[in-house]
Design goal:
Blueprint: E1 2-4, H1 19-24, H2 34-42, E2 58-60, E3 67-68, E4 83-86, E5 89-90, E6 95-96, E7 100-103, E8 106-107, E9 112-114, E10 119-121, E11 128-130, E12 149-151, E13 165-166
Parallel strand pairs: 1-2
Antiparallel strand pairs: 3-13, 4-7, 5-6, 8-9, 9-10, 11-12
Length: 168
Amino acid sequence: MTIKSGDTVEIQTLTTSSPTSLANAGVKSEDIEPELKAIHAEVKDKGPGGHILTGPIYIDGAEPGMCWNPHPESAIARRMQPTGSTRSGVSYLRKISSAATKLIPLDLQRNVRSSRQYRNSAAAVLRSMGVAPADSKGRINSGPPGDHAGNLDNKDLVAGTKLFIPIY
């Protein structure tokens, strides 16, 4: 897609969880998006990292050295049961012995996420957005953030956020 600076676009994204991990966590097959199933079944040339990336979206006239300043107007959680995942290894706080995916129930009418561990706003978080990295970096992992932005995993990255990302 090519847009002009200032255009408004609507983008639908998907979870990073696979249909298998969602089913193992208790999501019924009919509640798993058909698009997610299709991507996991059909896409063979997957890049490093576990994220399903949407794009590219080209901005007409954007040049290296400029800055992209997206203005997310809204973010809407489409799924009633988002997930939180851990991988085995060492986290910031402790060693994790096994991978797990946990369903986090959403009450969209009350705008609340609820689990035994926490209860907070159900506002959708725009965890990952960015620009194509510099060509010299080649194909990069979608997991760690970088100077291209990427997987920021910041709970404050919500509708209305101001974000400035250099264009390479």
